[in-house]
From TrEMBL:
Family to which the UniProt record says this protein belongs: Belongs to the glycosyl hydrolase 35 family.
GO biological process, one term: carbohydrate metabolic process
GO terms for MF: beta-galactosidase activity
Root EC class: hydrolase
Protein name, per record: Beta-galactosidase
Keywords on record: Glycosidase, Hydrolase, Signal
E.C. number: 3.2.1.23
Domain Glycoside hydrolase 35 catalytic span(s) in chain numbering: 43-347
One Pfam family cited in the UniProt record for this chain: GHD
Catalytic activity: Hydrolysis of terminal non-reducing beta-D-galactose residues in beta-D-galactosides
InterPro entries on file: Galactose-bd-like_sf, GH, GHD, Gly_Hdrlase_35_cat, Glyco_hydro_35_CS, Glycoside_Hdrlase_35
Aminoacyl-tRNA synthetase in keyword set: no
Alphabetical list of SUPFAM superfamilies matching this protein: (Trans)glycosidases, Galactose-binding domain-like
Length: 672
């Protein structure tokens, strides 16, 4: 008996030691455990001040298959850190049911970052903005009684804390914090709350302080950041976001100067031009930041990627989140941006010993009216930055006995205070030109484009197939109630689409009146306020549509005598992701829906019986998926017959849903 107990004891000890060894091994795969702290000059990593370059890369905006290659290109580009938000609505699509699989396998992602020798900055939020649907909030959050987002509100704070704790505990359990040998050196709570804090009065101030102390209290063991939060408490770092942050000063002398979002490009909205920021200007902004005392800078985004599925925020942000980033949507190097910034990082690294060695401000030398030098010098090292902030003229300046020619709007980096290793305006990287062939098997269409019907038709070849979606209710799953229900309360954001169908009776008398007074009386549907898109069908025929954010819709209608079926398709195009009071914004219709222009008084349709149908048939049948599309009755598109308003298109390897808006046609990519 005693022997058995002894053996059992030994067995337990053996198991414990194996588990311990395994976990140490696991941790050592990444780093030897190290501490992260900070002083007024920089983050202190394992006892040393560091100047850090960080690369923004949101893991669900690429597929896990793409992650290793993208991380390798980030490393090769000279970054030290990868930065990402955590996406609450992706991780907890249903309250209490978590998803850490596939594109949401954050543990795998952080481990890949660690394995490549890079650090990680995890911005938990959980409000993230990020042009992400509803700013990252799960839509079910709206349904919690008494909830008000991002303010001193008990139900919200409880939910927020639960998610933040979940993420911190997960990272700790997976040994991903620096002190465990993992790559995580920084965290973030909230996101740019300072921008909207005043909308909530004292409750906003109290909430910000609660968020800070709640986060800090989780004992994660690495510093927390609150970006754009000038009232961040002493124990939380504040940080700048913007196109230029070289004038930024943190709210305490004890904190280093951090730049959490260097906007090196921008997102694209429906129908708007694709933004572009030149590599020279980005390099200038970054060099100026380090010149004037900055110590951590993150590119937002280094890789932007794709808003898969229905993750794009808005309203009206598109599928691509390319962001004009150094790595394009497909993970290809965007040149000369990637290469020019790589050269910049190499030059900055040469300056790092001097930058971290100088404890106070660098020596400032005025070189001309719009030219200045900052010199980081100790007895052993010396690095200097010479800036010409004149946007138009080259300047010739004298610095430490030598003459330097500074191109307009540029910074020269002198790692040894004498030789120019890099100038932000001089691009040495070759420019790459990418072309895309419409519909070729090897290319993807990256941005949905607004096309005229006439523009689409000539491109139609035999390979195009179409599938019409029915107008109105298409499944048993519809219900009829009196009145207009709020869009999200019905869809729960399971679909962008909501059909509202009602019947309107036009009597013989009314019809004769309308016919007799055709010139002065036009029956007109009025929707007082709606967002984002509405399409109106009368008796199965398309009548008109409108697009906008809380706009009034005025739609003339041509009735027939007897019963008329009015079917309105209400659509969201990405839920609001920025601003105060997000929970109150909602979607669909506000105010009255009525019919005017009849012989009788106005008809208030807001109190009529309406049938509700969530989603489109093709969407629910997943006709866009590789497995399911073959089960639908596709027909060849013929240029002789223009397709109906709600038509799925398939050509080679992608599918589109085309919606025509009067003159325009909008192509939406539902799935690549
Ligand atoms: C910032 C925000 C980011 C992103 C960015 C624009 O203000 O923090 O999440 O939305 O704007 O791309």
């Amino acid at each position: 008996m005693l022997g058995f107990r002894k053996n059992k004891f030994r067995f337990v000890i053996l198991i414990i030691s194996i588990v311990l060894q395994l976990s140490i091994l696991k941790a050592e795969l990444f780093f030897k455990p190290f501490n992260v702290s900070y002083d007024h000059r920089a983050l202190i990593i394992d006892g040393n001040r560091r100047m850090l370059i960080s690369a923004g890369f949101h893991y669900p905006r690429a597929t896990p298959e793409m992650w290793p290659d993208l991380i390798a290109k980030i490393k090769e580009g000279g970054a030290d850190v990868v930065q990402s938000y955590a996406f609450w609505n992706g991780h907890e699509p249903v309250r209490g049911q978590y998803n850490f699989e596939g594109r949401y396998d954050i543990v795998k992602f952080v481990k890949l970052v660690g394995m490549s020798g890079l650090y990680f900055h995890l911005r938990i939020g959980p409000y993230v903005c990020a042009e992400w649907n509803f700013g990252g909030f799960p839509v079910w959050l709206r349904d919690i009684p008494g909830i008000e987002f991002r303010t001193d509100n008990k139900p919200f704070k409880e939910e927020m804390q639960r998610f933040v704790e979940k993420m911190v505990n997960l990272m700790r359990q997976e040994l991903l914090f620096s002190w465990q040998g993992g790559p995580i050196i920084l965290l973030q709570i909230e996101n740019e709350y300072g921008n909207i804090e005043s909308s909530y009065g004292q409750s906003g101030k109290d909430y910000a302080m609660w968020a800070a102390s709640m986060a800090y209290g989780l004992g994660a063991g690495v510093p927390w950041v609150m970006c754009k939060q000038t009232d961040a408490p002493e124990y939380i770092l504040d940080a700048c976001n913007g196109y230029y942050c070289d004038g930024f000063k943190p709210n305490s002398y004890n904190k280093p100067t951090l730049w959490t979002e260097e906007w090196n490009g921008w997102y694209t909205s429906w129908g708007e031009r694709v933004p572009h920021r030149p590599a020279e200007d980005i390099a200038f902004a970054v060099a100026r930041f380090f010149q004037r005392g900055g110590s951590y800078q993150n590119y937002y985004m280094y890789f932007g990627g794709t808003n898969f599925g229905r993750t794009a925020g808005g309203p009206f942000y598109i599928t691509s989140y390319d962001y004009d980033a150094p790595l394009d949507e497909y993970g290809l190097l965007s040149q000369p941006k990637w290469g020019h910034l790589k050269d910049l990082h190499a030059a900055l690294k040469l300056c790092e010993p001097a930058l971290v060695a100088v404890d106070d401000s660098p020596q400032y030398i005025k070189l001309g009216p719009k030219q200045e030098a900052h010199v980081y010098r100790t007895e052993i090292v010396c690095s200097a930055f010479l800036a010409n902030i004149d946007e138009h003229n080259t300047a010739s300046v004298r610095f430490l006995g030598r003459v330097y020619s500074l191109p307009p709007w540029s910074v020269s980096i002198l790692p040894n205070c004498s030789d120019v290793a890099y100038n932000t305006a001089k691009v040495r990287t070759q420019i790459s030109v990418k072309t895309q062939e419409f519909g070729s098997p090897s290319s993807y269409m990256t941005e949905p484009r607004i096309l005229q019907v006439e523009e689409v038709v000539p491109t139609i070849s035999k390979t195009w197939m179409t599938l019409e979606d029915p107008v109105g209710a298409w499944s048993e799953n519809n219900f009829t109630v009196q009145g207009i229900l709020e869009h999200l309360n019905v869809t729960k954001d399971t679909s962008d689409y909501l059909w509202l169908i009602t019947r309107i009776q036009i009597s013989e008398e009314e019809m004769s009146f309308l016919e007799a007074n055709e010139d002065s009386f036009t029956p007109t549907l009025i929707i007082e306020s709606m967002r984002d898109v509405v399409q109106i069908f009368l008796n199965g025929q398309f009548a008109g549509s409108a697009v906008g954010r809380w706009v009034r819709v005025v739609q003339p209608l041509h009735f027939v005598q007897g019963y008329n079926e009015l079917a309105i398709l209400s659509e969201t195009v990405g839920l609001q992701n920025y601003g105060a009071f997000l929970e109150k914004d909602g979607a669909g219709f506000r105010g009255q829906i009525k019919l005017t222009g009849l012989k009788t008084e106005e008809i208030d349709l807001s109190t009529s019986l309406w049938t509700y149908q969530v989603g489109l048939k093709g969407e629910f049948m997943k006709v866009y998926s590789p497995d399911q599309h073959k089960f639908a009755n596709w027909v060849h598109l013929s240029p002789d017959k223009l397709p109906s308003m709600l038509t799925w298109y398939k050509v080679l390897n992608f599918l589109l849903l085309m919606e025509c808006f009067n003159q325009d046609s909008m192509l939406r990519i539902l799935q690549k």
